[in-house]
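Slide 14.
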Amino acid sequence: MDKREAIGSWLSGPRAAAEEAGVDFGYRGEQLGLPEEGPGSIARPGRRLAALAVDWGLCLLIAYGLITDGYQQATGNWALLILFVLHVLTVGTVGFTPGKRLFGLRVVTLDTGTVNPLRALLRSALLCLAVPALIWDRDGRGLHDRLARTVEVRI
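Slide 15: predicted structure.
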């Protein structure tokens, strides 16, 4: 192995190096029984982040326009509270937020397919903490999804 190959494997990460060695990880969602592509497949990180950005922008607008006078430090705090309430109410009833709907995503449970309000409450609280949402498993599910036993899929 020359220096280029060693640097290339380091830059691409351990998964790519293991795949080059012949390890088959399968596709995201295979262990969960979800399809590889199309409706019902695991949502990609880009769509998930874009949907969250849309939801956060809406919550900032609401906090800026209705709750505070101008942008202050408290605006961000109110926006986080509004995001929490938005997620609990919308994910717990219809399974998606406005941002998720815009990007064609839905939150479901693996056993029943619908998210009950208690799971939505747990998932939303962990999402607002941010750290659990940044820790992903092999299937691309955040820790907040794993603990709430939910998965974000394409619709």
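Speaker note: The chain has eight helices and two strands.
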